[in-house]
Amino acid sequence: MSTNHSNKSSQTFKLLLFVIAIPIILIIILIRALNGGGTDPALMTTEAIEDRIAPVARYNLVEVAAADDANREPLNGEGVYKRICFSCHDAGLSGAPKFADAAAWGPRIAKGQDELFTHAIGGFNLMPAKGGDAKLTDDEVKRGVVYMANQAGANWEEPSAAAPAEEAKPDEGAAPAEDAKPAEEAKPEENASQ
């Protein structure tokens, strides 16, 4: 009788193992079939992974001498557009009105030059101040705005280039630095601490 009982118990264990193992094996086969049989080793190389997680754009930051910007000729409206504005306004990125699109520029032109100048110089919505080029002068930005608005149907006059600032000259009546007398040293009063 004990043999019967041990046979039944071993058969039950085998049946239970079979019932659990078959669905697990089927699930594994199904997952492999849906995933294409596993991961391609070529996709798991360090180079492939770095390519997939690399930033979309790379910036090459270099120092530019301030003297180069001080000595450059002021840009006209078209020059400003070609230098920075085209990057968003050609494609209409981030809600920017497309270049020469009268329908998109019409409501903006109706608001007037001053408001457009304020937005372009100080930034507006997703547009950074001066279109992201801090080296542009306010007058250059204004010329860029006028150029784009005129291409869309406005008839605004482009602001003229500002005259370069004259170098500051020392006052001829002022005494030269070497003749100036040094200031007297401050002396504490004797009774000040009491």
From TrEMBL:
UniProt GO MF annotations: electron transfer activity; heme binding; iron ion binding
Region (Disordered): 153-194
Domain Cytochrome c span(s) in chain numbering: 72-152
Composition bias, Basic and acidic residues: 166-194
Keywords recorded for this protein, A-Z: Electron transport, Heme, Iron, Membrane, Metal-binding, Transmembrane, Transmembrane helix, Transport
PROSITE patterns: CYTC (PS51007)
PANTHER family (alphabetical): CYTOCHROME C5, PTHR40942
Protein name (Swiss-Prot/TrEMBL): Putative cytochrome c
Origin organism lineage: Bacteria, Pseudomonadati, Pseudomonadota, Betaproteobacteria, Burkholderiales
